[in-house]
Amino acid sequence: MKKKIRVIQYGVGPIGAGIVRLMREKQAVEIVGAIDKDPSKAGRDLGELVGAPDAPWGIAVTDHAGTALGQKADVVVHCTSSYLKDVEDQLLECLEAGCCIVSTTEELAYPFRKSPEIAKRLDQTAKDWGVALVGTGVNPGFVMDKLVLTLASVSQRVDSARAVRIVDASKRRLPLQKKIGAGMTPEEFRRQVEAGIIKHHGLPESVAMVSDALGLGVDEISEAIEPKIADERVVTQFLEVQPGQVAGVHQIARGTCKGQEKIYMELQMYVGAKDSYDTVELKGLPEIKLTIPGGTHGDIATASVVVNCIPAILDAPAGLRTSRDLPMCFFPPSAEP
Amino acid sequence: MKKKIRVIQYGVGPIGAGIVRLMREKQAVEIVGAIDKDPSKAGRDLGELVGAPDAPWGIAVTDHAGTALGQKADVVVHCTSSYLKDVEDQLLECLEAGCCIVSTTEELAYPFRKSPEIAKRLDQTAKDWGVALVGTGVNPGFVMDKLVLTLASVSQRVDSARAVRIVDASKRRLPLQKKIGAGMTPEEFRRQVEAGIIKHHGLPESVAMVSDALGLGVDEISEAIEPKIADERVVTQFLEVQPGQVAGVHQIARGTCKGQEKIYMELQMYVGAKDSYDTVELKGLPEIKLTIPGGTHGDIATASVVVNCIPAILDAPAGLRTSRDLPMCFFPPSAEP
């Protein structure tokens, strides 16, 4: 029997916990450590922390990355922040420990425009240590980029691309409902947008990836975040939104080439959305459209994409990769190590 | 400036001609030769043969593969037959000339079950010469396999997969309308099915790829081909079908594991289809469905997938690859060599 894939979980918040539970189902994976800087988690058993029925697992969460990285893992699954500058040192430390990385940091999904210097350092360090890293998830990582590129593989010519994702946040967890501003006044929402608190990260990264991959020559990327105002009362398990209050976010990113729109990406994520779906549309030859009715469930899908990427990142050439480069597939629970 | 990708077209039938026209639009590609065993094509200018407005190109079609392969190409685009045993020697000769190959041979899309020995020889020869080859197209290669695997990247668990493709053949070329039996009596259709003349190739290959990639453990693949009978008169540009006559094919492939159905793939291709679409559906967690309304246009898409695969096959590790391994994307016409 071959050696199992040794994995360390870095960041055990709600998404990290979902990832850990999913990894536990994969025969080929052995979880060998977990890192979380939260002192209330340090020292706890990972299985108990993620609410696993078969806990304890005998894996202690540590707040000291170096201790866990001493375990000689093959892969670190990294879920600590959306911002690349906040995680650069964490990522470098993992690479220098000889680990491949799959990270949910949205700004890592395609960092070459916003953070070319950090991208270069990560790429070089990964190459020096012979490992690969990727930033991915459901979006960025799938709906508005990988799915667009995959659909474009049947295109002879692509003139422009459009992706729209409507998410009904009513059934999502409370932190998400709060994060999108549900129940706020429009004024409070705008203040939080200005303060950088309300924002779905990753749209400009998807625009950049799609532009480069499809050769659309986007030279400017703009982004707007507006409140989605409730026109009727919405009650969720956690909160209530009155008409006139904010139901969630309506975010649009555009990529233009010499002033002409080439890429349009729209995300609506709000409580009480009646029709949720993902669509991708390409103008060109052929004109083609793809729809996922009901949409891709965010929490389930992010954990899936990350865990499903583990075999691909181990197979990838050393360096900084993106979901553009990796063949995306499913990691069967029964797959042999 | 970097060297352009030197390509030889092997087989200049209708699909091959479409591929040649599309390759001509890619700045990074230089077509350096063309092979076709048809004596009426040998010696003709490739540009004229494919009806290019800027013909002649000064590229003579040859019926002698060795002559063209002396051109030291990087890639051979190969479109001569659906059957792997008929093309094995052609493929080996290209590999031994140091060329990567993108082929439309349906049985090459995933040959490991039906033709494991041929697959092994091709893989070994490719590795010996440091090149890679892949069999691909719209189906197999995209709708019923790559799209299924890509969608599965958001899955935590996959219990079964289903793909349905309904194609309206009314607007397709005459050879295709004839190939699907349009206008035949049901008896004649069945005779031609038995003789192996009427058949869409590649469904079992897609079933095998999906089973292996998703870990569905399919141990038996069955296939049925039935006529789709016209219930009203259908008139196309080329022919007429009366009620009771055959309008096209209705083909179903199933993959079962210990008798239980895990994969269902259905292809309906007939004149007068009112609602054409491609759908992929996964049971598991989540339950997810994807639809391409109108469907992926076969002739356009096959040429696209093949040409769009050229950069990917050059980047791939040496050996026999499948669309499962390759990141599929678009090959921008403006991409630099």
SSE topology sketch:
Two copies of one chain form a homodimer.
Chain A: E1 5-10, H1 14-24, E2 29-35, H2 46-49, E3 61-62, H3 65-69, E4 75-78, H4 84-96, E5 100-103, H5 116-129, E6 132-135, H6 146-152, E7 157-168, H7 174-179, H8 186-194, H9 203-214, E8 220-229, E9 234-235, E10 240-241, E11 246-257, E12 260-270, E13 277-285, E14 288-293, H10 298-308, H11 310-315, E15 319-321
Helix pairs in contact in A: 1-10, 4-5
Radius of gyration of chain A: 20 Å
What would CATH call the homologous superfamily of the largest domain in chain A?
NAD(P)-binding Rossmann-like Domain
Largest sheet of chain A: 7 strands, parallel
Number of helical regions of chain A: 11
| Number of E strands of chain A | 15
Kindly report the CATH topology of the largest domain in chain A: Rossmann fold
Give the H and E element order of chain A.
EHEHEHEHEHEHEHHHEEEEEEEHHE
Q: Pick out the low-confidence regions of chain A.
A: none
Report the span from N to C terminus of chain A. Answer: 8 Å
CATH top level class name of the largest domain in chain A:
Alpha Beta
What strand line-up does the widest sheet of chain A have?
A: 3-2-1-4-5-6-15
The secondary-structure class of chain A comes to alpha/beta
Largest contact between chains? A-B, 49 and 49 residues
Quaternary form:
homodimer
CATH architecture of the largest domain in chain A: 3-Layer(aba) Sandwich
Report on this structure.
Two copies of one chain form a homodimer. In chain A, strand 5, helix 5 and strand 6 form a beta-alpha-beta unit. Chain A has two domains: 154 residues, Rossmann fold; 150 residues, no CATH class. Chain A has a seven-stranded parallel beta sheet with strand order 3-2-1-4-5-6-15, with helices on both faces. A six-stranded mixed beta sheet of chain A has the order 8-11-12-7-13-14. Chain A has a two-stranded antiparallel sheet with strand order 9-10. The first copy, chain A, has eleven helices and 15 strands. Chain A is α/β, with parallel strands linked by helices and 337 residues long.
